[in-house]
User: What shape does this take?
Amino acid sequence: MVDANGTNTASGKSGAGGASGTSGESRAARLLAARRGATRVLARKPEEATMAERLAALAESAGSVTDFDGDPDLYGNGVVAELEAKVAGLLGAEAAAFFPTGTMAQQVALRCWAGRTGNPVVALHPLAHPEVHERDALSAVSGLRTVHVTGEPRQPTADEVHGLDEPFGTLMLELPLRDAGFLLPTWQELEALCEAARARDAVVHFDGARLWESTRHFGRPLHEIAALADSVYVSFYKTLGGLSGAALAGPLSFVEEARAWRHRYGGQVFQQFPQALAALVGLDRELPRVTEYVEHARVVARALREGFAQAGVAWARIGPEVPHTHQFRVWLPYDPDVLAEAGVAQAEETKTLLFGRWYTADTVPGLAFTEITVAAPGLEWSADDVRAAVADFVRRLPRI
Assistant: This one.
């Protein structure tokens, strides 16, 4: 995860200096300005828009998804309830509850399952969101304990779930696993994982913040994917471009209990209609296009790999080689400051932004990675466009 100053709080760190001696903070400001001024990008980020622009866009589009002249919500009724019903339908669940954050939604989900199973242990991946991005909230706030299914940077296997040496109440699967490179299991592997958990008398919870992106890889609709789990969390600002917020979906009795805990955790917010409206717009406009984004991400990934080879970069890696979603990682053997400066300079000089922030992984010195997202603007890029942009980017790097 990246904070406002560009610091990666996940498995990598952004550099502080740069080839030109600029600080990380000043380069972050330059990058934001370059993003706003670029005429060619692979995806637009919400933070590129000003407050006025975001509010104007929401006002312009909200009338297409609900009665914009209706009353705003009060403590979760109205348009928030409309959104909950929409999500429950998409996921094939009995009910869904809106949460102000995904962190709160998953805290509540896992706490509810701990009470129902009688076991406070959650089995998950060490790169999963609660382990990396939530300051140990599962233990500090909810009194839960975690065990790791595997330490490898990949999705766990059914054999590993079967082989855990202590009981657990919930298996949490992040789909896709962002900090391993937006990785998904195969459909058969996912079925086997869920079956293995239930063979251990455990329930299954999907961290589906980006589940919207998984249908192309699995070859299944959302409701069929969600049906494998006992509960599912989805995000409204990841993938869909909403303002904020999340939903927790599952059996009616589970969701009713989750609403009670949501209140206790401080999530019973007076009004949330802007977030709900933005989420409905994202479901209406972005969700139908996600499969197209995933398909084109594969074109972009292949062209990047070809472009680096043609430019003579001795070692470059695209991971995964065939993206599972519309997001993937690029690894290069340079200091992140050098790569960041080259990317900002390219955007400033050519109005083409190929790469944004770069990070170095603690466990892999000498390498840096960036995350690529392909959305609507990226559909305009041909493979030749990508290769040409790579050649221009590499031209700005020192020879190694």
In short: Residues 290-310 form the longest helix (21 residues). Residues 1-10, 15-21 have pLDDT under 50 and may be disordered.
